[in-house]
Structures are given as structure tokens and as C-alpha cells.
Design a protein that fits this description.
253 residues, mainly beta, 18-stranded mixed beta sheet, 2 helices, 18 strands, 6% helix, globular, calcium, Pectate lyase, signal, Pectin_lyas_fold, lyase activity
Length: 253
């Protein structure tokens, strides 16, 4: 790594020129500054939700919505393209447009090398009590609002690692107004975020949510690390009460 790159490290975050320097140096791989999907090996149109139990390997095919799944808008309550049973794994999948509500995890799940070319309502939504979610590899683009929506009950955790995101609102949001609320913990590592983008994480400090970030690369623009909210269980819009690492709920290393 060049001296210039080292000088731009800020508490585990690489910003601006350092990200460019790493691209030139070849550190971090070919996708450092963009959430590019690999070339698709084929295309499948889903007109109803695909239920997944066990492991589904999409072999890098592109999946798009058709029929009732073909709206491609931001309406709440849409059905997903994939619904993962507790313990399921979805891997090597490209989700194109229209993407409906992406992926729903009903409990513990793994998303490995899943790419969203144009996020619909959300890329993925997490549910279940005590659910452990791992997002490993992959990337997402064009998320008008959230990429990952965390509606889980108590227990478990979400880990997002070696993931790339660009043109997005929030990479991760712990539900701010679900009817049943709980503490939610998320770990982000090896994330490359490319502008335009709003913030990586939104968490509810009054419920004890935590976010731990490391190995974050911010490439261009003014992308925040954490937004801190006071969540509720009434359905009201949650109030933002702070931002940035606070050493307690949002920790950067």
C-alpha cells in the first residue's frame, strides 16, 4: 500500500483518494469501486415467489420478476422473488429488474455471492427470532431506500462481509417502527460503498441496537457510517437523534 493510501486511513475507514490509490495498486480486487455482478449465464423470469429450503445455487443466472412480481416499484408489502426457509442458503444469484421485494429470510439464512443490479422495494428482509443472517460477497446497486431491512425478533445477529454497494439510501436498517421490537446486532466488514449513497447503517439506540464496522472503504461523496434513531412499536416514523460512531451503539475499528 502506498504512503498516500496509508495517510488517508481514518479509524478503519478508507476515503476518497485512498480508495483510488488502492484500485491503482490492485489491492481489493476488480470490483473495488463498483457493485458489478459477474456475467449472467442465463435469465429466469419468476411469476411467483420461489421457496428455498436447503441450498439453492443459481449458477450466476439472472432472475427477474414477471406477472404479479413485475411491478418494479417501491410499494410496501410486495412479495419477494425468493423466500428462504429457516436455515436456507441462496448463492450465486443475480437479481435483475424488476426485482419485487428481493429476498425474504424467514429465519437463519446465508446469502452468498448474491448481486442485485437494481434493488426493488428492498434487496432482502430478515425475520425470525434468534435468527443468524450472513451476507457474504455480492453487491447491490440502485437502492432508492434500503438494501437490507432487519425485522428480526430478539437474539441472533446479522453479518455483512466483503460486500459492495453503490447508489443507495441505507445499506442496513434495523426496523424503526415494527410492531414487535428487540435489540438487533449487525457486523459490517470489508464493505466498499461507492457514491451516491446516504449512510451504511441505521440503528435504534433506545432498543440497544449495535453496529460494529471494520475494513470500510468509502469511494467518493459524503456517505455516513451510522444514523442513530429512537425506534418505536407504534408504526410512527422513527426520530433520528444522532449520527456517526459513538463508541457504544456504533463502533468502528
Amino acid at each position: 500500500m502506498s504512503v498516500r493510501a496509508i495517510s488517508r486511513w481514518r479509524g478503519g475507514i478508507i476515503v476518497g483518494a485512498a480508495a483510488a490509490a488502492l484500485v491503482v495498486a490492485g489491492v481489493g480486487g476488480a470490483h473495488l469501486a463498483a457493485a458489478d455482478a459477474p456475467p449472467a449465464t442465463g435469465e429466469v423470469t419468476l411469476t411467483e415467489t420461489m421457496a428455498v429450503s436447503g441450498t439453492f445455487d443459481g449458477t450466476n443466472r439472472r432472475f427477474v420478476g414477471g406477472g404479479d412480481l413485475g411491478g418494479g416499484d417501491q410499494d410496501e408489502g410486495q412479495d419477494p422473488l425468493f423466500r428462504l426457509a429457516d436455515g436456507a442458503t441462496l448463492e450465486n444469484v443475480i437479481i435483475g429488474a424488476p426485482a419485487a421485494d428481493g429476498v425474504h429470510c424467514q429465519g437463519t439464512c446465508t446469502l452468498r455471492n448474491v448481486f442485485w443490479e437494481d434493488v426493488g422495494e428492498d434487496a432482502a428482509t430478515f425475520r425470525g427470532t434468534g435468527a443468524t443472517v450472513v451476507v457474504e460477497g455480492g453487491g447491490a446497486s440502485k437502492a432508492e431506500d434500503k438494501v437490507f431491512q432487519d425485522n428480526r425478533g430478539a437474539g441472533g445477529s446479522v453479518t455483512i462481509r466483503d460486500f459492495e454497494v453503490e447508489d443507495f439510501g441505507k445499506l442496513y436498517r434495523s426496523c424503526g417502527n415494527c410492531s414487535t421490537q428487540a435489540r438487533r446486532d449487525v457486523v459490517l466488514s470489508g464493505i466498499t460503498a461507492t457514491a451516491p449513497g446516504d449512510v451504511l447503517v441505521g440503528i435504534n439506540v433506545n432498543f440497544g441496537d449495535t453496529a460494529r464496522l471494520s475494513g470500510i472503504t468509502i469511494d467518493g461523496g459524503d456517505i455516513g457510517l451510522c444514523d442513530l434513531f429512537e425506534g418505536n412499536d407504534t408504526g410512527d416514523e422513527p426520530e433520528k437523534i444522532g449520527e456517526g460512531p459513538d463508541g457504544t451503539n456504533c463502533v468502528v475499528s
